[in-house]
Amino acid sequence: MAQEVQTSVVAITGGMGSGKSSVAAYLSEIGGATGLNADTICRRLLAPGDSGWLAVRTAFGERFFLPDQTIDRPLLRKVLFEDQEFRLELNTLLHPLVRKEICACIEQEIDFLAKANSPSQALFVVEVPLLYEAHWEHDFSPVVVVYADEKTCLRRIMLRDRISVAEAEKAIQAQMPLPHKALLADHVIDNSGSWPDTCLQILHLRNLLWGGIGCGGG
After folding, report:
1. Exposure of 111 in the CB half-sphere (CA atoms within 13 A)
2. Cα-based distances in Å from 204 to 141, 207, 210
3. Strand segments (E) across the chain
């Protein structure tokens, strides 16, 4: 007989360059949680023949496709940050597909644990960069915002993506201001300083959320 599985689904969000992925990965590791990433799921859905790929092709024709029928991601990214109307249209197409896939992954894991008579608690850490922009904040509890000051975010984006300061600023401006997200959050991790300092905050958050259960991390 399948047993009931208690579930905790934590959302990690923030701004570009704030360090969301690093925080989400470490919280998953020390909490023994299953990690999901909305951007990773979106990239998978944009693979040739998948639902996101079909949606983009239907809406925009050949505009964003290379000769091998893969999506021209640099071009898509450029237009995404430059054209607000296009950004809204693309998000309207892709966000429901990503949301559906996240829910399916969570339900599949819960079902597996229930049928396997595994430990009765399922922990998930879901990284959703555009959580507030997509109005998904009520899908998760709690919501954790990873904060970093704008100067730090700009530097990280420029180093990671090898782009100019003007391009990095445009990317940041395409999202809700990070201080606004921090005000809406249940918890805030300040990742402006050193990584060891951030790790201490994440460890405290793990203990606060899950009472010290999980594996690793002391």
Report:
1. 6
2. 17, 5, 10
3. 6-14, 34-37, 121-127, 143-147, 187-190
- Which of 169, 101, 182, 167 has the alpha carbon at shortest distance from 139? 101
Give the Cα separation of 12 and 197 in Å (integer).
18
Residue 77 maps to a domain: yes
Residue 1 in domain: no
133 in a structural domain: yes
Which residues are CB-neighbours of 95 under 8 A, at least 6 positions away? 130, 134
Confidence of residue 119 (pLDDT cuts 50, 70, 90): low
- Tell me the residue range of the domain where 146 lies: 7-210
User: Which CATH number is 113's domain given?
Assistant: 3.40.50.300
SS3 per-residue string spanning 97-128: HHHHHHHHHHHHHHHHHHHHCCCCEEEEEEEC
Peptide bond into 142 cis (omega under 30): yes
What pLDDT digit, counting tens, does each position of 141-175 carry? 999 999 999 999 999 999 999 999 999 999 999 99
**Domains in the chain: how many in total?**
1
- Host H or E run for residue 161: helix 150-161
**Torsions phi, psi of 163, nearest 5?**
-125, 170
Task: Round to whole Å and give the CA distance between 93 and 175.
Answer: 18
* Chain segment 12-28, per-residue pLDDT in tens: 999 999 999 999 999 99
